[in-house]
Design goal:
The protein is α+β, with helices and mostly antiparallel strands. Helix content is about 45%, strand content about 10%. The protein contains ten helices and three strands. The protein has a three-stranded antiparallel beta sheet, with no helix packed on it. α3 crosses α4, α3 crosses α5 and α8 packs across α9. The longest helix is centred in the middle third of the chain and has 11 residues.
Length: about 190
């Protein structure tokens, strides 16, 4: 038996040069001479949902949840990662199926209830902040304190702040007391460009 037929393929391939992150030119030194070939290492976590087409979309589009901008995308990602259906998540989190389905809708403008997202995050085995977009993270981190700090950094009273941005002073007071939540469109107007 010829010894060269017994050599495993990978034993003679070695990195020749690194071109970029995860991109190499490999060299092969064998009896036939030296050969070169590109090697690209693509890393992603394979999701295991029950809907294969949707999983394929997420595997191709996203390599990690940090690339996702919306809560709805993150919820679908983590749900697929756990191999759960929407009804499974709703049941285990103690919410109605229609409510959870609404959480995964792309065009949701209402804030997410943080107590419900906390239960869902626990089910997914992640921290609630991993599920939040910038707006909902703003609410999670205490909108009242942040709005007050922003207003004070401008050197404005509540009345001046309200007049400058076209709000009612009563609304500004409610925001800063965390009595009402700021709407997403208003948050974008104030903080979206930061």
């Amino acid at each position: 038996m010829n010894y060269t037929n017994q050599i495993r393929y990978h034993e003679n391939w070695h990195p020749f040069i690194r071109l970029a992150n995860h991109m190499y030119i490999m060299s092969y030194h064998g009896i036939e001479g030296v050969k070169y070939a590109p090697l690209y290492i693509h890393r992603f976590q394979l999701l295991q949902p029950r809907n294969l087409l949707e999983a394929e979309r997420f595997n191709i589009r996203y390599s990690s949840p940090s690339e996702m901008l919306t809560v709805s995308e993150k919820l679908r990602y983590y749900r697929h990662k756990k191999g759960l259906m929407q009804k499974d998540v709703a049941e285990k989190a103690g919410i109605h199926l229609a409510t959870y389905c609404a959480y995964e809708q792309e065009d949701r403008i209402m804030p997410y209830p943080l107590d419900k997202l906390s239960k869902i995050a626990e089910l997914f085995g992640t921290h609630i902040t991993d599920l939040l977009d910038e707006y909902n993270l703003f609410l999670y981190n205490g909108q009242g304190r942040q709005i007050q700090e922003f207003r004070q950094s401008l050197g404005l009273t509540k009345e001046e702040f309200a007049k400058l941005y076209g709000f009612h002073v009563y609304t500004v007071k409610k925001w800063e007391n965390d009595t009402i939540q700021i709407l997403k469109s208003t948050w974008v107007k104030l903080f979206g460009n930061k």
